[in-house]
Design a protein that fits this description.
This protein is of the alpha+beta class. The protein has a domain at about 65-125. It has helices spanning about 1-10, 20-25, 160-165, and strands spanning about 65-75, 80-90, 90-100, 105-115, 120-125, 150-155, 175-179. Strand 1 and strand 2 (about 80-90) form a beta hairpin. The longest helix is centred in the first third of the chain and has 11 residues, at about 1-10. InterPro entries: CHIT_BIND_RR_consensus, Insect_cuticle, Insect_Cuticle_Struc_Prot. This is Cuticle protein 8.
Length: about 180
């Protein structure tokens, strides 16, 4: 059966004219093909019909991007107080964010963005700024520090065991020397 299918394909190949290939694929260069056929075989099977289904390209349509989110933080211990919200439908984005500044005011930024007008933001501050009082510097008199005298002593010359025994007791002749 394999020989039968190969023979049928070999018989079908020369039937396609090269000009038809060039018309369909004009941008391709077709090199001449040299074919040599095997001796003709007697085929007792019905011819095989090969039909190609038409190729249909399905175009995917993307829906416009769309999302919405909101979050906030309120930590009164560290004074980290902020929030943000944003909404997008297609190419248009609208949103705001606000945060508590170190001086006690609240900064709020409302923004919009789209392909036509670009990014636009309006910044507002609310509340009264409170600044801590500047620390008062107090002049402290500098005290003069005098170092204490260095105390050192000299050892008595080392004596041999015989000398120590003849003395009868150890002699401690340490002397204090002040510098």
């Amino acid at each position: 059966q394999v020989v039968t299918i190969l023979s049928a394909l070999a018989a079908a190949v020369p039937a396609i004219p090269v000009s038809a290939i060039e018309e369909s694929y004009g941008h391709l260069a077709v090199a001449p093909i040299a074919l040599s056929h095997a001796p003709a075989l007697e085929i007792s099977h019905a011819p095989i019909a090969i039909a190609h289904a038409p190729v249909i390209k399905e175009v995917e349509h993307d829906s416009p991007p769309q999302y919405e989110f909101k979050y906030g933080v309120k930590d009164t211990h560290t004074q980290d107080i902020k929030e943000q919200a944003e909404k997008r439908v297609g190419d248009k984005v609208e949103g705001y964010y606000s945060l508590l500044e170190p001086d006690g005011t609240t900064r709020t930024v409302k923004y919009t963005a789209d392909h036509h007008s670009g990014f636009n933001a309006v910044v507002t501050k609310s509340g009264q700024a409170v600044h801590p009082a500047a620390p008062v510097k107090v002049a402290v008199p500098v005290q003069k520090v005098v170092a204490a005298p260095v105390v050192s002593y000299a050892h008595a010359p080392l004596a041999s065991h015989e000398d120590a025994l003849s003395l009868g007791s150890y002699a401690h002749d340490a002397e204090l020397i002040y510098h």
